[in-house]
Protein 1
Amino acid sequence: DVKVTQSSRYLVKRTGEKVFLECVQDMDHENMFWYRQDPGLGLRLIYFSYDVKMKEKGDIPEGYSVSREKKERFSLILESASTNQTSMYLCASSDPGLAGTDTQYFGPGTRLTVL
Amino acid sequence: AQSVSQHNHHVILSEAASLELGCNYSYGGTVNLFWYVQYPGQHLQLLLKYFSGDPLVKGIKGFEAEFIKSKFSFNLRKPSVQWSDTAEYFCAVIPFSGGYNKLIFGAGTRLAVHP
């Protein structure tokens, strides 16, 4: 079974703090993703990476950055946390199949609260 | 912009009732279609997917979905729900638009099944 793990299930930070969310996958997947999940909005893509040291902006990258130094690890960074970044953050990974056929596997999520 | 609409945000059913969750997307070209489910406290997981072929797709736990291209729809169905189907259901679409084909999620439908 594919396993995607995230470093924390719950996190509480203060406004202005730098926050690191870590994600690790154990299936040697090429692609990794960070989403945020908010009630009534579904999942929105923040950033994704299709190779080590490669990254692409998703639909809502503002206020976030990412790092992928190793294939199995994808980090999401909030440079200066703000209250509107309080959310559930989901990491996912996939292998690139034929265009659009890759199935994404999700981690358990990190519920971040910014006070 | 490409979007996915899920018409019902909350659905409440009694056990053994039939279920149909609506999903429509706004993209005229080729798409791949997915339904994901998130049980309380669990990871988001794939329920079923459609890439090509028979437009009636069967997934896990007795779920099925029908792709109707002329209606841009991919509705999820189950003839008889169980209490254990209580979850949030997300429709997602990959529209082919050149470059990396991103997964676009609907807002989700919360299903509560009462015994």
Protein 2
Amino acid sequence: DTGVSQDPRHKITKRGQNVTFRCDPISEHNRLYWYRQTLGQGPEFLTYFQNEAQLEKSRLLSDRFSAERPKGSFSTLEIQRTEQGDSAMYLCASSLRQTNTEAFFGQGTRLTVV
Amino acid sequence: AQSVTQLDSHVSVSEGTPVLLRCNYSSSYSPSLFWYVQHPNKGLQLLLKYTSAATLVKGINGFEAEFKKSETSFHLTKPSAHMSDAAEYFCVVSSGNDMRFGAGTRLTVKP
């Protein structure tokens, strides 16, 4: 399968714990996005990488959130001191560098904070 | 700044009748526009995209969308709904680095 891969698919954690999600983009794609989607809402932009550089971060991304993309390949999204409000589907997408090309999405990681 | 407004949160049609899902956008630049579909427990799938070529865009599964700059609209249509079209549909605007999603329209298809 050469699509966008996210791991884990589901994560249940206790409030206050740290969690880390991984995204493996399509291999030749140098753009990588993270989105958050809550029930009944459209995906909300969190952050964007071009290769290893994090070029944009949403104000939704509080200090408890950090994302990395070492070597411009896979990416990780870490949430520290999770809160119940962090419960959501976290989506990763990748695309080619050309302007305005479409993004391909992974299946997402569903986070439940109890 | 760019944004998307999907004018209907829920649309219900009967099988075999036309589908119209409405989308208005706002962008400071010449945008690219996309429609994505999300079936329950499935990932987002691209239906079609507009990137400043023909204003009438054909996508998969018989869907079409027309870009109207004067109306800042990018409505999604299909002549005849099928039961398998029941899903959540998202209109997306992009003009550079990021992609902004609308809130989504849930399409219900009645037999």
